[in-house]
Amino acid sequence: MIEVDALVKEFRTAGSVDGRLAGLRRLWAPSRLVRAVDGVSFTIQRGEVVGYLGANGAGKSTTIKMLTGIVRPTSGTVRVNGVVPWQNRRAHAHNIGVVFGQKSQLWYDLPLRVSLETIRDLYRVEDRDYRARLAEFDEVLGVRDFLDTPIRSLSLGQRMRGDLVGAMLYRPEVLYLDEPTVGLDVVAKQALREFIAAQNQQYGTTVVITTHDMDDIEQLCRRIVMIDHGSVVYDGDLPVLKKRYLPFRDVVITPADDSDAALIRADHSERIEGEDGTITLRFDPDVTTAPAVIAQAASATGIDDLKVIEPDLEDVVRLIYAEAGR
Amino acid sequence: MVELAKDFRTLLRVAWLTEMEYRANFLISIVGALAYNASQLLFISVLLHAFGGVAGWTGPQVFVLFGIRMASHSVCAFFFRRMTDLDTVVHTGEFDRYLLRPVSLFLQLLMRRFNLQQFGDVVIAAAVLGFALPRAAIDWTPAKALWLVAAVAAGGMLEAGLQLVRGALSFRWTNTESMTGLIETVFGTFGNFPLQVFGGVGAVFFTLVLPLAFVGWIPAAMLLGRQDSLWFPGWLGWWSPLVGVGCFALAIVFFGRQSRHYASPGS
Q1: Minimum-distance CB partner of B101 among A102, A122, A150
Q2: What is the distance between the alpha carbons of residues A319 and A322, in angstroms, rounded to a whole number?
């Protein structure tokens, strides 16, 4: 559905000048060429939900802007449903829905209803379909309550829901979401995720999402493409990514009293004493299993509390970003 | 073409509704436009009163020129005001939205807002022409009247075209606001006079380099039978509306080409 090959985008920025009369000398300082995206390639199949990750400034938004046809690449190709975005802009526009968390695509001064009706007319959606879809979207997103409120008066959560309805009204094949949940409360985030998942399952909508909220990724995406300094550093399954960077699992045990603590141990696991008196047994799930570790540890001694810690995607991402930043 | 008309109707509705959200703004703009144009009118009246004419043209003849230029300007202001918004649209990233919709980029810019507040310009232009035309001893034919309408429309397109080209430069340079005022000021300052007053070099300059001759001077000279004031063969003047139309068409093409350099701001 989306084919990206050797995509490059370079920007010219004013060169920096220090020292005396820097402000004046900047006028004729040579401009600097910055490579925001440096040879990105990937292919996304119809119906996939892909998380496009990267630290701030990694080149995520620039890539999304090229995929959506807002910005032309310096070199490389993009095909979305067989269409090159910047060569056949209008055909492409019917294929994609776009939601930017930072920027509404709707008419700022007018009620949400007017924006939706305008989109209906510009995309030539039959009124019958329009009504049916609005009713369907309303069930998950609950937009009816603020249909007559101007966009500028909506809360962020309402505005995002409105934008999402606007982007899906003409049933595009591909939905791009650029930080859709930033600044939203837990309930609004959940509604958004449910909606996206439902569209994907019912209509096979292909979804590309960039976000800094790892819960978005865990709940929606099966696949991750990670970018850093303009290049793809990981492309594959979410579980594999976790395993590569955090291969261990931890069983954290709170012993009944200090004398029991010394007895807590299990085969094939590393024993780490916590400062708060807890004992962590770290093991490789390929070698042994959580029940085996727990059974052995519990047989020996009195245990007050016990929990199994799964590797957290946030930790994984932190590790990768930190590594790349060095 | 049918599709374009449908989009036009859709966007017109949005623009109209947006305008209605700002009714107070609408009234203030009309008053502002009236005041601005009245001050120009006053200046010319004083000038004519003191000197009795400009460069061989009588007072009523100069008023016809002024009226034609005002009418051209109100065509530009009423229909094509949004051309001057292009640098803002580029600067703020609003252009992102235009690129994402299956609608002509030019049409989306054009219909960004409804231009009702420019009504003040239309009122002034109509008043000035209503006053000056009967006093200028023009020998009217239906063809001449039609030609005047075409010349006024083309004059508006010329100004709009220049503004659009200016705005389209912002795809690469981002900030071209300083030039918006420049075009309006040059047209407003020099456009109101028979250009022979600036000497032969001035007249050629304002015809070929900064083509404001096509917005007032040439149409007025043709209409008033003052081809003697022009620096080129008089019959050429009848073709002058083509310049405005051509300029506008080229400007739209230029806009389309420059939009390829759009570097959307922010993330």
Answers
A1: A122
A2: 5
